[in-house]
Amino acid sequence: MATTQETQKTETPAAAEAETATLDVFRYIPEEDDKPHTETYEIETFEGMTVLDALIKIRDEQDPSLTVRHSCRMARCGSDALYINGTQRLACNTQVSELKQPIDVEPLPRFDVIRDLVVEMSEFYNRMESVEPWFQPDHEPETGDEYLQSPENRKNIDTVLDCIWCAACTSSCSPAASDSDFPGPAALAKAYRFYKDEREGEETRRRRLEMLENSHGIYRCHTQFNCTEVCPKNISPTEAIMEMSRDAIKEKLRFWR
Amino acid sequence: MKKHDVLIIGAGGAGLRAAVAAHEAGADVAMVTKLHPVRSHTGAAEGGINAALKDEDDWKDHAYDTVKGSDYIGDQDAIETMTEEAPNEVIRLENMGMAFSRTENGRMAQRAFGGLSFPRTTYASDKTGHMLLHTMYEQVMKRGITVYDEYFVTNVVRENGKCHGAVAVDIQTGEVEGFAGGATVLATGGSGQVFEHTTNAVACTGDGTSMAYRAGVPMEDMEFVQFHPTTLPSTGILITEGCRGEGGELYNNKGERFMYEYGYAANDGELASRDVVSRAELTEVQEGRGFEDGCVHLDLTHFGEEKIEERLSQILELARDFEDVDPVTEPIPVKPGQHYMMGGVACDANGATELDGLYAVGETACVSVHGANRLGGNALLELVVMGKLAGQHSANNHLTNVSTSAVEQAVDDERARIDELMSGGKEHQSVIRQDVQNVMTEKVNVFRAEEGLEEALEVIDEAKERYEDVNVKDSSKTFNTDLIQALELRSIIDCAETITIGALKRTESRGAHWRYEHQDRDDENWLKHTYVYHTEDGPEVKYEDVEIKDYKPKARSY
Amino acid sequence: MSKERRVESYDRGRIEDLGRAKDWAIHKPGMWAFYLHRFTGLVLSFYLVMHLGVLGTGFWLGHEEYTVILQGLESLYIVRVLEIGLFAAFVFHALNGIRIVMFDMTVGLDIQEQLFYLSIALSFAIVLAGVPFFLL
Q1: Do A155 and A244 share a structural domain?
Q2: Structure confidence by residue, pLDDT tens digits, B118-168
């Protein structure tokens, strides 16, 4: 009796330990490969393991050449947006246990690949910069030192302020893929952050709208909602874009002014 | 080779602020960073930024709180400069468009924070660092300042007692590149990766500190390492002090608010300074009143969902995603984790170091405004105030006769060193790194004992030797993170060594530094800054008295 | 300062994009709504061309021939079934069109998925109710 209990005791943790995950990882090293290929890794998992943990484990234990951008590991720096099981997500806040196996890990689609899971981000940064994402008040502060902003107005931009530039949305956006002059969802959400900020004043608001209302701007959006679906920070760029285009159209409708 | 008047190494809050200030002073500025600026770890700062903005508040009170928080080892001149400048700088941030949370009448909101006598922590929800980082980067974009992103700076160039620039590896191409600069500002952040359980990013490896150290500039007060009382146990992710500032309560497994019940901080309770709360938590755990995994509970359930959503939305997200706990209905398990390095590159209030042309700013630097323990909300403040001062000073005083040949020579040396690293060795960097991190977390933690410190020093010494024969397995030139990590490991070992030596030699308990054998503060012998110099035969330690001005040392209680 | 590329990178290209699109599971409801709207729109415009062609026979060939052609077409069972398809395309396109106009007025953006399902469900109901009229 005692012995069976003992064996049972030793067996259960062993069975629990044996839990593994299989990852199909996109690999491409420019010096070695003409074309990308998929490599399969099997790893032991632990409770609470994220995809980033899994990739780091593969890198540390199996294949040090596996390359992925990552830094803060708390969904703040936005370095590690990847295409995991058919969706753009942050590797660091995606649990391995919640994914169907084998887990398919690819770099962000529609971005050129520098190496493995690392993509060329320069175009994305240029898109972000194209909407003039900096504060441009058209007047001096009301109080002499600080600008006044109502808590309601601040609340309106709370979600868009949370953007971490991970590029998940821009990667998911098909208009952004076919039109390089279109700033894309992330940049337009950033533009909206300033557009809605009452501290900038009416003049700047109008100028921002004029800058964006064209067929390569807010009117490019097809309301596919891909950006909204993939955003790890629950921002809805579609909502931001639609609000700006509504305002733009409304202003156009008042043609007699 | 690239040439600029002012080179800023690192593009977190301090670097960006310095760049903007230097640009405004008319210098040709460039930033060199191993991440893109918006990936910097300033973004992870949550709580807020201290400034005596209100009429009822006084910057002198802020200065006193800071001195007291520093356990009287902070430089009082520098602290006064920082706290006096604080309101201006916070308003400057607002004028740059930073989205602070607002009060009903539309002004910037402030909340209570640990160790402060007045609720003067200006905040932007619980994402203050994120907002600050993005606002500063927006200003850099606006000014068209050159940013070299994904360049890993490995060394500063020293010749004839002057700094002529830096050498960097282009992470994307693998090429070594020289940067000649009339002034070089190190703003590379902290070295949290020395520890295994840390709130810091993987990129926080203390590169700047180590570079300056190797260029002959001393590291100051490295033994003072802040352990944040509330981090998630499994990942080390930070739960902001704002939780307690808004009224969050800490409980042990008997359901007692131990901060009051056991007299750790009879007045301020949870809002005592961080070192006090961290020690209290660990004492509770050691005396058997903790929860699983060495945790205590942080209870926010009495706030109601709306308040948490509004003021602590990120905490909600982090606790749910990374600890599978819902703060609205259940307490969050927390434990202390490495958070901030009070020490760093020794420099004056303008960020200037002993070496002409080399500056340090932010967490990399030790001015020292934080002394033995930093108050929450003072880090972001240091970034902007010291960033501005260093930026201005470096723009006005940069060297005009930069020796490009020295930079070229340094590039050749660095190329040779990297070739050697790549040529193979015995041990992989990840193994050595883990050994150092583990021993630091175990032995050089909140409570430190002589034996443990000596043991840690042995492991670090060994690691130094093992590093001589480190192995980079990845042979590609493109985006070789294996190589970058091997280069970072040297910085980690340097920082670990100086922390441990400082801690071993300081035979007293002060602020965040606590020794079993010497549990009291010893003002007679130890009102001193530690300086560690790099020499051929290992580190050399020197001391210098702290200048006490208006604020005389008193017993410190909260 | 705008950024430039420093390394040569691998362009995964359109082909790969399309290859990925073959996996139906990756498309989200909003995307399906977009596809269906485009598809039904194409069907309707294609029908419009045919419709004009048939009407044109009255002009070019005379109205007797026109009647013969129309009666001939209507007697074909397959044409009736196709008409149901046309009707379905029309109904969905109209309903989803309302959904999109709502978005333009920033109404219902946060329930776009539900609105899509609603337009599908309503289309089904309306088309089912209309079947007898086409087949009788």
Answers
A1: yes
A2: 999 999 999 999 999 999 999 999 999 999 999 999 999 999 999 999 999
Token pair 């009082």: residue:
B76
User: Is the CB of A110 less than 8 angstroms away from the CB of C9?
Assistant: no
Q: What is the CATH number of the domain that holds B256?
A: 3.90.700.10
Kindly indicate the confidence band of residue B260, based on its pLDDT and cuts at 50, 70 and 90. very high
DSSP-assigned beta bridge partners for residue A105: A25, A84
Structural domain for B469, as ranges? 415-522
Task: For A35-79, write each residue's pLDDT tens digit.
Answer: 999 999 999 999 889 999 999 999 999 999 999 999 999 999 999
ipTM of this predicted structure: 0.94
How confident is the model over A119-159, as pLDDT tens digits? Answer: 999 999 999 999 999 999 999 999 889 999 999 999 999 99
Domain positions in chain C are: 27-135
Checking if the pLDDT of A12 tops 70, the result is no
> What is the extent of the structural domain holding A91?
13-119
Whether residue B178 is found in the same domain as residue B310? no
Same domain flag for A132 and A245: yes
**What residues of C are in contact with residue B37 (Cβ under 8 Å)?**
none
Which amino acid is residue B405, in one-letter code? S
Closest CA to B231 of B258, B256, B197: B197
CB contact under 8 A, B476 and A30: yes
CA distances from B291 to B196, B240, B326, C3 (A): 21, 20, 17, 50
Architecture of the domain made up of C27-135: Up-down Bundle (1.20)
CATH code of the domain in which B187 resides: 3.50.50.60
Q: Please judge whether C1 and B478 are an interchain contact, meaning their C-beta atoms are less than 8 angstroms apart.
A: no
- Chain B: nearest CA to C106, how far in angstroms? 24
Among A86, A129, A236, the residue with its CB nearest the CB of C109 is A236
Q: Report the domain count for chain A.
A: 2
> Measured between CB atoms, does C2 come within 8 Å of chain B?
no
Task: Cite the DSSP H helix spans in B34-75.
Answer: 59-69
Assess whether B435 and B514 both reside in one domain. yes
Residue B302 tokens, joined: 């009495």
What is the model's pLDDT at position A37?
Answer: 93
A157: tokens are: 């931009």
B187 in the same domain as B97:
yes
Asked whether residue B468 carries a pLDDT value surpassing 90, the answer given is yes
A149 plus A237 within the same structural domain: yes
- Closest-CA residue of B relative to A166 is B39
CATH of residue A245's domain is 1.10.1060.10
Look at the alpha carbons of B456, B425, B196, B155 in this order and tell me if their dihedral is positive or negative.
positive
pLDDT of residue A17: 53
Q: What is the CA radius of gyration of chain B?
A: 22
Q: Are residues B202 and B350 in the same domain?
A: yes
> Residue A169 to residues A174, A232, C86: CA-CA distances in angstroms?
10, 9, 35
